Prior knowledge:
296 residues; alpha/beta; CBS-domain; 3-stranded mixed β-sheet; 10 helices
Amino acid sequence: MSKSDKNTLSGLVVSQAMRRQIIKLNKDASISNSINAIIKYKINALLAVDDSDNPVGVLSKTDIMGAYYAGIPIESSIADIMSQPPLFCYPNDALESALQIMRSKGVYRLYVVDSNNSKVVGALAYPDIVGLLYQYCCDCEYSHIQQTKRSNPATIKRTLVKEIMTNEVKSVFNDDTLSYVMEELSIYRFGAILVKNRENIPVGVISKTDLTLAYKHGVDSLALADTIMSSPIQSCKPDDILEDAIKKMIFSDVHRLFVEGSSPNELVGVFSLSDAARNRSGSCHACVSSRIKLEA
Length: 296
């Protein structure tokens, strides 16, 4: 983002936030090959195309998890499980408009098409929007990062994690089956879920990425949660500045942080990239007046 762009968020368009690398596979490719691509490029979904390279669907980790749960052979084609049709927007669409579509349709991403030739030129997902907002914060003279460099920092009210986090923390037990974990993720539309032991102590996290890899490696869906969970848990504090929490997610390559209470074993909330994107502002209240407006 150039210096001239950073005075307001309300004027942003899709092309400023979208990613231009499009990972796509023919709809007849196998689920196994799609997992290879998703893991290789560290993406949450890919575009499915027909023999003429026309977009026909989207294959996400959610779709792959559903196939794993249903026991669909991993060599089946992605056409059997993909979501369709893809949802599109244009490079010059207002970012607020794209966010509204994502929210109303309950989707995590839109594909961006050139208005002249209908060619797919990019993709827009919540992490892309958060990355743009974080860059805005880093460049802004009022940001926490910039203010710490000053001998006389300004007194500015900043957005804290507790103001926008999700307060309820869902969890499974480490001896629950992966099938049960997938059921819980589907019910609550989560990207990951906390894992506790029978003493209610947090011991790990299972994400759709973990389940995607388990499917690829032939792990039985009746295996126990602790066979594939990731640990340690990435966390933050309720009073952490939003800017710092976003930075931790970006540099730790995670999509959520669990929010600690009075101790690391007491978790009182979850803060995700989706929460940060829906907040539609940087961490400083100085930019509240220029937030992207989004109707409730």
